[in-house]
Here is the input.
Amino acid sequence: MHPTPQIFQSSHANGEGESQNLNKTGVSSCFATVFRLGVLLLVSTISLGSSAEPEVEQENAVNLFVGNTQNGSLNGASIGVGYERRLTSLFGVGGFLEYAGGDFDVTSLGATLHLHPHAGWEFKLSPGVELDGGEQDLMFRVGVGYEFEVVPSWAIVPELNVDFVDGESELIYGVSAQYEF
Here is the structure.
């Protein structure tokens, strides 16, 4: 018989259970996985960005998001910041940091692949991490928005996102004020 690795052995003698041992190892592998996915998104979009697409006028965009996070009857006001680097007129990469208060009290952090298929439409795919007190869970965000240009370089972006975290889904909706440069 092979010895059972320490991570799967119960350590009730010192007060820790199996789930705590699994959680400690899962946290470090969680960050490693998010980092690898972010690098993969960046490399794949850079290679896609080398095609003969027209250049974009403003290559960078920063935004401030305000909205609501909802999961069933749970609600919490949300605020966040985001960044996008447009590689081509179709693709961009970036990231976001968002806090949901109220019933949640969680912070989400992720790397984002942006797709701009037509006019002001924007679709987002974001692997990330949700930080809830001392716990850290992998998450994946899928989102859609539409950029309404207010004046040159400024846009208002209503958006709808769904986060998949720990077997559940959370709906995040709101509006971003976006500055492009």
Summary: The chain has one domain: 1-181. The beta strands are 60-71, 74-86, 91-100, 106-115, 121-132, 135-146, 148-151, 154-165, 168-180. The CA atoms of residues 82 and 96 lie 4 Å apart.
